[in-house]
Specification:
Blueprint: H1 23-56, H2 61-72, H3 75-91
Length: 94
């Protein structure tokens, strides 16, 4: 991999492309991201286990996911969606 230093694409001889990069800071950033990705994977497994528990207890996981989504929404937005859903149901004779 080359790192052009001027506009004609030629690399200056003796120029270190890593100059000015703090290896320690870069390593810290990478390690922090890797750590968070590991935590996210562990949490994802925990969430999956909870849904498995819910399913084995007889709950409908799809409905639980919908409830979680609704609980995250603004109450006015929820009311608006429920009103529109009701209007559409009535229009379809449901």
């Amino acid at each position: 991999m080359s790192f052009p230093d001027n506009h004609d694409g030629n690399q200056k001889v003796g120029k270190d492309p890593t100059a000015g990069i703090s290896a320690g800071h870069l390593r810290s950033i990478i390690e922090r991201v890797e750590n968070l990705e590991e935590q996210r994977a562990a949490l994802s497994g925990d969430v999956k286990d909870i849904f498995t528990e819910a399913k084995s207890a007889g709950f409908d996981v799809k409905i639980i996911r919908q409830l979680i989504k609704v609980r995250k929404m603004d109450p006015a937005q929820v009311e608006e969606q429920e009103t529109m859903l009701d209007i559409y149901r009535r229009a379809l004779g449901m």
